[in-house]
Write a structure and sequence with these properties.
Blueprint lengths: L6 H31 L3 H15 L3 E6 L3 E3 L5 E9 L5 E7 L3 E8 L2 E7 L5 E9 L2 E10 L8 E4 L4 E3 L5 E5 L5 E6 L2 E7 L5 E5 L7 E10 L12 E5 L12 E3 L2 E3 L3 E7 L4 E8 L2 E5 L7 E7 L5 E11 L4 E13 L1
Parallel strand pairs: 2-8, 10-16, 18-24
Antiparallel strand pairs: 1-3, 3-6, 4-7, 5-6, 7-8, 9-11, 11-14, 12-13, 12-15, 15-16, 17-19, 19-22, 20-21, 20-23, 23-24
Helix pairs in contact: 1-2
Organism: candidate division Kazan bacterium
Keywords: Membrane, Transmembrane, Transmembrane helix
Protein name: Bacterial Ig-like domain-containing protein
Length: 332
């Protein structure tokens, strides 16, 4: 009785036949190619070997962080290379153009290189080699000018503002990213329009006190401008408060060790409300976004009258404290 070959054996047989046909076609044309183009036989052999490796499932996957960089001699791009079905050492070399490439990290099959731009504009071609496998990638170096420094036109310098997230207005190069800083730290990212104008509220609230605002422009290649004019402002917001008369505790008399609900209405600029009672601190939450902060809290385990304090923080972190604001009666 004839034996039936397994599907996997048939697949391998088909693969070998395909490789044989491809090799035969290339071999027949190699003589003509060598004669007409001057391509070496070794190059043809390498191409056949790489083709066979790819058909066998081996490959080098290359991912580049930035395909364009300024030709400034310092800008960098990370390059990730993932070898597939190959254990041969991996090398990287620049075969055309300016710059340098170095191994940054080798962890399992995720290999990371770092390319540093040269100072000559043009295309830099990097070849990655692992055994017979070769893969190239190109990074273009562009001669780019430093963008002009933006200008902040509002708020005025030395102004006092009753808003923890003031509006910032200014101008710069058109369609350019703008980073607004507060006391030297990044606060907000925006972009100029086609006329070079930008207008935005700060993303991160400012605490009460003095702040120095500035702006920096960054072009598409990541080149930063000089710092804009400095604008010093003083934030003086109204302190966060509570509505003492409408604080509710349910039930007013609670059994020792059981729970009670507390409701604390607060001002619209309140961001966090906590209660301190019997040596413990509890946070309340504005679940319905109505500035009414609520929580279910455990009652003390001993009967008595307990007095608690309410602490309110606004969006900038400014603290307001209200001592002896709440009172509960604990019964046995």
């Amino acid at each position: 009785m004839a034996q039936t070959k397994s599907p996997q054996a048939n697949r391998h047989r088909i693969l070998y036949i395909a490789l044989g046909i491809i090799g035969l076609i290339i071999l027949i044309g190699s003589t003509v190619a060598v004669a007409q183009t001057g391509v070496s036989l070794q190059t043809l052999k390498n191409s056949i070997s790489q083709l066979a490796a790819h058909l066998g499932g081996s490959d080098l996957l290359v991912q580049v962080e930035h395909s364009q960089l300024p030709a400034d001699g310092k800008s960098q791009s990370k390059i990730w290379v993932t070898p597939i079905n190959t254990s041969s050492p991996l090398t990287a070399n620049i075969i055309r153009g300016d710059g340098r490439v170095e191994l940054l990290e080798h962890k399992d099959n995720n290999i990371q290189f770092i390319y540093t731009a040269g100072s000559n504009p043009g295309k830099s071609v990097i070849v990655f080699t692992s055994g017979i496998l070769r893969q190239t990638t190109t990074i273009e170096l562009i001669q780019s000018e430093v963008p002009p420094a933006p200008t902040i036109t509002s708020p005025p310098d030395k102004s006092q503002i009753n808003n923890s997230k003031p509006e910032i207005i200014g101008a710069g190069a058109q369609n350019t990213k703008i980073i607004i800083t507060d006391n030297g730290k990044h606060n907000t990212i925006t972009k100029t329009d086609e006329h070079g104008h930008f207008q935005t509220h700060l993303d991160k609230p400012l605490y009460n006190g003095q702040h120095t605002l500035a702006a920096i422009a960054i072009n598409d290649l990541g080149i930063e401008s000089a710092t804009s004019n400095l604008v010093t402002i003083t934030i003086k917001t109204d302190p966060a408060g509570i509505d003492r008369a409408n604080i509710r505790i349910i039930p007013a008399r609670v059994v020792a060790g059981e729970s009670f609900a507390i409701f604390v209405p607060a001002s619209l600029n309140a961001a966090k409300v906590t209660v301190e009672m019997a040596g413990q601190t509890y946070e309340l939450f504005d679940f319905n976004k109505t500035s009414v902060f609520v929580a279910t809290l455990p009652a003390p385990t001993e009967p008595g009258i307990y007095v608690g304090d309410v602490i309110v923080a606004d969006v900038s972190g400014n603290i307001s404290r209200f001592d002896n604001t709440i009172s509960i009666t604990v019964i046995s």
